[in-house]
Amino acid sequence: MALQPTQAPSPKGYEVGTAAGDSFSAKKLLFATGVTDQMYNIQGFADCWGITALHCPYCHGYEIRNKAIGVMANGDLAYELCKLHSNWTKKLMLFTNGKSTLNKAQTDALYNNNIAIIETEISAIAHTNGYMQHIELADGSIQKVDALYSKIAFKQHCELPEQLGCSLDEYGYIAIDVFQKTTVNGIYAAGDNTTMFRSVAFSIAAGNKAGAVINKELIDDAWA
C-alpha cells in the first residue's frame, strides 16, 4: 500500500493506493497499526513470548501468581520491576544477564526481600510449546522458572506516520494529544503505537475517542 498526502488545497486530503491498483481518498487518517517487539537473541525466548515470556504484570500477573517468576533486567529498571512483580509472588529472582549495575542500596533491598540476583548470562530457555521449564545459564547451571518478565525494545509496525511527518516521543511512540491527534493536522493515532499501556480495553477506548473527534472535525470542516 502506498500513502501520500495530496497537494493542498485539494479537498481529498490523502490518497491511499493499494497494490491491486485501487485508490481511495480521505480527509482524515487514523493509524492503529501497533508496534513490533524486538526479540532477544536467546534460544527459546521468542517461542515463549506472550505465553510465559511476558511484558506486564497487570496483563499476566494473576495467571502466574505464586509461581516461580524471573525478571530479566538491570540497573534502576530491574529494581523497579522487582518491586512491582513482588506483589504477585514470593518466589522471585532477578536475572541481570551480565554484571549487575544495581547500586548497593538497591542490591541490599532485593536481598532483604529474598530476591536472588543472578548475573550469569542466559544462554537458552527450555520450554514446551511456549511454557517455560527452566532457564539455562552460560555456566551450565539451570534455574527453574515458570515465567520470565522483561521490558524489551520495540519499533513502530508501520513507518507511514513518520514518513508523513508525525513526531515520535522519547520512547518511540507516536506523539499524540488528549484527542489522539498527532503532530500532523488531520492524522490521528490510537492503540499500542501511542502508549506503553498494551490492552484491548485501552486501545478500544482510544479508538472510540479518535472516532468521535474525527467525526466532529469532519462536521466542523463541512460548515467552514
How confident overall, as mean pLDDT?
Answer: 92
- CATH architecture of the largest domain, by name, is 3-Layer(bba) Sandwich
* N/C terminus separation: 32 Å
Tally the beta strands: 15
Please name the fourth-level CATH homologous superfamily of the largest domain.
FAD/NAD(P)-binding domain
CATH structural fold name of the largest domain: FAD/NAD(P)-binding domain
| Content of β-strand | 25-35%
Textual characterization of the structure:
With 224 residues, the chain is an alpha/beta fold. It has 6 helices and 15 strands. The strands form 5 sheets. A 5-stranded parallel sheet has the order 6-13-7-8-9. The protein has a 3-stranded antiparallel sheet with strand order 1-2-3, with no helix packed on it. Mean pLDDT is 92; it is low at 1-10.
List the helices and strands and how they pair.
Blueprint: E1 2-5, E2 14-17, E3 23-26, E4 29-31, E5 35-37, H1 45-48, E6 53-54, H2 57-60, E7 69-72, H3 75-85, E8 92-95, H4 104-112, E9 116-118, E10 122-128, E11 131-137, E12 142-143, E13 147-149, E14 154-156, H5 160-163, E15 187-189, H6 200-223
Parallel strand pairs: 4-15, 6-13, 7-8, 7-13, 8-9
Antiparallel strand pairs: 1-2, 2-3, 5-14, 10-11, 11-12
In short:
25% of the residues lie in helices and 25% in strands. The chain is of the alpha/beta class and 224 residues long. The chain folds into two domains: 27-36 and 153-223, 3-Layer(bba) Sandwich (FAD/NAD(P)-binding domain); 39-149, 3-Layer(bba) Sandwich (FAD/NAD(P)-binding domain), CATH 3.50.50.60.
